[in-house]
Each structure stands twice: as structure tokens, then as C-alpha cells.
Amino acid sequence: MLAVVRCLEAWRHFLEGTTTRFEIWTDHNNLEYFMKAQKLNRRQVRWALYLSRFNFMLKHIPGSKMGKADSLSRRPDWKVGVERDNEDKTLVKPEWLEVRRTERVEIIVEGVDLLEKVRKSKVKDDEVVKAVEEMKQAEVKMLRDKEWREEDGIMYKEGKVYVSKDDILRAEIIRLHHNTLVGGHRGQWKTVELITQNFWWPGVTKEMKQYVEGCNSCQRNKNHTEQLAGKLMPNSIPEKPWTHISADFITKLPIAQGYDSILVVVDRLTKMVHFIPTTEKTSAEGLARLFRDNV
Ligand SMILES: [Zn+2]
Question: Is the pLDDT of residue 247 over 80?
Fold first, then answer.
């Protein structure tokens, strides 16, 4: 279809606005698909718009009968050197991805060149030493299908900068990815994601978790999803005695002089108390009477 559009563009001055219908010969049978009503994508709509300016007919001719066209467009001497240039092409090459990743490592966080620090770190893990030895013996820069790679004195494990067991350095990397503008005090998972874009070491996730949990500002600015408890509201202090009282029953006492309970009435201001003997079966009316008579 693109070929048709390109040809029409090239010969527009001959073909546009002709009164006689011209023919387009193509060996591409699928093109007839476009001649029927279809749901078109955006590019096809653009093409259809362009094609509508021409008075033409698509005619399918099998490739075997297109001798003239083929002899013009497929001259054997044009093929020399480019016969295979269109084979095995991937749209996104793996090297590009690799490059992107190493480029990002070069980002200097808050003026600190972390790569330089990793390079200078004297501490080396056994695992790394072993990998380096193996590489030296085999005289290669990669090991085990790119699991280990050495470049500029930095060890990469699966494409990430391997940080040796240098606690100060590891802590600094974490701090730079969390406490800074870049890190922005994000939660542990976001911070781990940020770090592991470029760096890796055994237990990075766990260390990160501990760090974020212990981060002072994170603790203070934590988002609480549950509703805040209301403020404590102390009862106001009464101005006079016996304006505010509390009353309660002490029940289930051994029967003494026909009573088994005590009504306790306390004044909130003076704490003066009335103990009134009564029974458990006292009704509301009885309670009112006791109150009137005793308090
Ligand atoms: Zn924090």
C-alpha cells in the first residue's frame, strides 16, 4: 500500500485529476482488501484521503506475470552486498538497552559520584573475588552468560553495579536514594526500585527496609490511614459543691438489716460521699425517693 501511495506521490503531476481512469498493477493481492469498506487505522485514513484525489483502479497481476516491473526494480546488480541486510533484524537491539543502563549509572546523585566510590572501595566480597579470578583465568570480561561483567574496575552482576560489603558505602547509597531530592523519602518499595535500577548487593531489600523504618523524617511524616483519635476533653470543674454528682450502686453484698446494696453518691467538686443502704430491687421511683431523702 505504501508503494502505491509513494508512486502516486511521485507521478502526481501526471495522474491527479485525470478524466480517464488509470490502472495500478500490483502483485499484492491483499491490496484489494483496501478497496472494500474497512475500519481504517489513522495512517490508512490518511492514505485513503490522498488516494481519493485520483481516478484509478487497482488491478491484481500475479508476481509471475510482472516481468517488466521486476526487471526494472530487481536488477541483480543492485543486490550485490545488500542481499542479506534485511534479515534477522530486531527493532530494539540489546546493546542499546545495555548502554542506556550504564548511562543511567553515571548519574551523579547530589554531587556524589557513586561509581567512583564503588570503584575505590577496598572491600571485596568472596563471591566477587572468585568471579574476578575465574574471569582472569579465562581471559574474558564476562562470566556465565553475562551474570558477571567487569568494566572499568567495576563489577556488574546481571547488569547492575555490584556493591561490596562496605557498610559505609552501602549506607551512603541508600541515603542518597532516600534522603535526597531524588529519593524524596519514598516508601521502602519505591526506594528499593530506585536503587536496584543501578545497584545491587545481597540483602539490599532488607537493608533498605530497615533504613526506611528507622528514617526519622519518614516516621514523623508518615501517612496515617486510620482516623485520628479525638482530643481528650476533660470534664469542666464545677463551680459549687453538689452541682455535679456521680452515683453508683454497690450490689451483691451479704444481706445486713434487710439491705443488700449500697447507693454511693459523690459530689464531684468536694468528693463528699453519701452511702445509702438499699436493695438490688430498687425501682426508679425508689431511687428518686432515696436521693431526695438522703442527699
Ligand atoms: Zn525517609
Answer: yes
Ligand 1 center to residue 164 CA distance, Å?
24
Quote the cell numbers at residue 162: 555490584
Strand 148-151 relative to strand 154-157, pairing? antiparallel
Residue 203 in this model has a pLDDT that exceeds 50: yes
CA 193 / ligand 1 centre spacing (Å): 15
Q: Which is more confidently placed, 83 or 120?
A: 120
How large a percentage of the chain has pLDDT more than 90? 2
Q: pLDDT for 158-172, tens place per residue?
A: 878 888 888 888 888
Give the dihedral of Cα atoms 146, 152, 155, 160; nearest 10 deg: -70
Q: Give the Å distance between the CA of 210 and the centre of ligand 1.
A: 11
Whole-number Å distance, alpha carbon 178 to ligand 1 midpoint, is 6
Residue closest to 153 by CA, chosen among 105, 203, 117: 117
Report residues near ion ligand 1: CB below 5 Å.
185, 215, 217-218
CA of 220 to the centre of ligand 1 (A): 9
